[in-house]
Amino acid sequence: MKINWLIIFSFLIITACSDDGGGAEMPAIYDVAPEFEPYVQEFLREAEKRGQSFDFRETGLSIQFSELPLNNANGRCFLGQYRVEIDKVDWFSFSELFRSYLLFHELGHCALDRLHRNDKFDDGSWKSILKGDPFTGFDDRKPVPYFGFRRDYFIDELFDERLSDPDWGDITFDYDKDLERVEVSQTKPTESRLNERFSGITDDYEVEVAFDFIDQRGIWTTLEWGAVGSNYYIQIVPDFGYYIGVKDDGFNNILHYRQDTDRANGRAIDNITIRQGDGFEQIFVNEQFVFHLDRQSQLDYVALSALEGDQVVGTFKINSLKVSTIQ
Ligand SMILES: [Zn+2]
């Protein structure tokens, strides 16, 4: 089965920016389609909180769906023209969070006159929602973790590119830390998938799963955990890499990407540990810290399975699941 790369990319924000407006000066009119108006208002509120104000009725601002699908981009800005175009199909496939990010990115160009900024924190995450082409290597696959505690930073940075790096930017967590664990459950699943339910664990917790990595094209291995309806997930795709994201209100929001599926900490991925501590959700892959997220309020379930298309892969081997609370 062929991997549907389109599915992966449709969850990524890709922006193209152009300074080629054909030389035509845009008249100073305010022409924002109703779909985008709430985000423009949100932009103005965030600006005001930071002591900045904009009068788009004075400067003009046009935000419309593009007439034709945008090639390899979700949106584009015509620099210096207060003019933005958004791809319609992409727009309706995005969560509210990603829509805000996409418009803030474009307004970063059009209202704030900013160009792309492509430096990163130690965990590989972009430092700015103004990341954009040209990319090197696999950087085009990397999302901006515009979510939770990072979101405030990204908006601060949007309005002030000289902002110093946040404390959490280059943080790392120690897998071998001494912890007092109380075992909640320990299973050695004999089946090829697991879906363990818990009765609302609200203490700090640790989830450790061990499995045999499937290095076969077309198979997607997914670990999900957290609260029903709003949970985190890790999705591993052979020959591609893995994503960490948050599923919220039915939308997948990709927040982090790593390419190293077959050599994480020197071997193929066979162990994922989720640990709550220091107010965060810490993610270790093969005992190596890779990323941290906002602490989830409770743990209702842990699910792990491998799918090929819609079919569960019966030969997927899950070796163990260990869930503990941390005192
Ligand atoms: Zn851009």
Element layout with pairings:
Elements: H1 5-10, E1 15-18, E2 30-32, H2 37-49, H3 56-59, E3 61-65, E4 75-78, E5 83-86, H4 88-93, H5 96-110, H6 148-159, E6 181-187, E7 194-201, E8 205-211, E9 219-227, E10 230-237, E11 241-248, E12 251-258, E13 271-277, E14 280-285, E15 288-294, E16 299-308, E17 311-312, E18 318-326
Parallel strand pairs: 1-4, 2-3, 3-5
Antiparallel strand pairs: 4-5, 6-18, 7-16, 8-13, 8-18, 9-10, 9-16, 10-11, 11-12, 13-14, 14-15, 16-17
The chain binds zinc ion (ZN).
The site of zinc ion has 6 residues, from strand 1 and helix 5.
Q: What is the count of DSSP helices, taking H or I runs of 4+ residues?
A: 6
CATH topology-level name of the largest domain? Collagenase (Catalytic Domain)
Characterize the overall form.
Answer: elongated
Unique ligands: zinc ion
Radius of gyration: 21 Å
Structural class: alpha+beta
* Unreliable parts: none
Largest sheet: 7 strands, antiparallel
List keywords for this structure.
327 residues, alpha+beta, Collagenase (Catalytic Domain), Jelly Rolls, 7-stranded antiparallel β-sheet, 17% helix, 35% strand, binds zinc ion
